[in-house]
Amino acid sequence: MLKIGVLGAGHLGKIHLRLLNQSSKYELVGFYDAINENAEKVSEEFGYKAFNTIEELIAAVDVVDIVTPTLSHYHCAVQAVKSGKHIFLEKPISNTVEEAEHIIRLTKEYNVKGQVGHVERFNPAFKAVKDKIKNPMFIETHRLAEFNPRGTDVPVVLDLMIHDIDAILSVVQSKVKDIHATGTAVISDSPDIANARIEFENGCVANVTSSRISMKNMRKARFFQKDAYISVDYLDKICEVVKMKDAPEIPGDFDLILQNAEGVKKQIYFDNPKVETNNAILEELETFADAINNNTTPIVTLEHGTEALRIAHRIIDCFGK
């Protein structure tokens, strides 16, 4: 069983601690939090061992789970990797692409594995339809959240939109050609609402919207491809697949038939897969354990996380233009 320790015991860090404590694939050794008062409180309330320094925690584990604020990801990752430890990094992988690329080089040099916490890849609704998303040509996503001071140390693109960027990059097998984007700071010092149009070399276009100042939460994506429309509701964990095929010569009484201007008839039918219930955060952590134990490639690699970060920064760079 892999020994694991958590860096950061904030909101998400406490979730990781609870799930790792339940996991059959890890032995939770303890955690480190830079805020002593918070560390003492978490340790007293939940019984997890609080380490006095990062170095002590890293020395005691095989895997370091980094759930600290984004600005400290790089420093924590470098320390862990140089100590020969595998790393799980919450998204975004780091603050800059240069930092992320250095982390990748170090993991190869020290022969350790890394995974990035793009948790929507493990969302049961997305997992249920991912294999049905084939060569989408138009994608639209909306990720809206009520205002929460947590996360406002970075623009909404790095806080929220990067989830959708990673999911889109995982299904569009083409390089990004061009990006047009706009973002506005309303409450924070950095943009709280943003929209981006991502154009790919194969002609696919993704229209991506994120906001952290909405009146209600929404996390939806729609994928349009030849003869199919696929929708994913990440929040409610439901999905829908609407397909079209050539209409039968003699349609049934309840068949849905569309006819275009040229007289071509298509039948609409639903092909909704079963959504298997899971805990996405626990699954992403445990699949990383499998990758370490079996010496296989993690589902969300450091390279995936870096490419999502690269596109996110290209979007942010558009804001001042």
UniProtKB/TrEMBL annotation:
GO molecular function, one term: nucleotide binding
Superkingdom, natural source: Bacteria
Boundaries of every GFO/IDH/MocA-like oxidoreductase domain copy: 156-216
Coiled coil: none
Entry-linked InterPro entries: Gfo/Idh/MocA-like_OxRdtase_N, Gfo/Idh/MocA_Oxidoreductases, GFO_IDH_MocA-like_dom, NAD(P)-bd_dom_sf
A Pfam family annotated for this UniProt entry: GFO_IDH_MocA
Domain Gfo/Idh/MocA-like oxidoreductase N-terminal, residue spans: 2-118
Protein name (record): Predicted dehydrogenase
Species of origin: Paenimyroides marinum
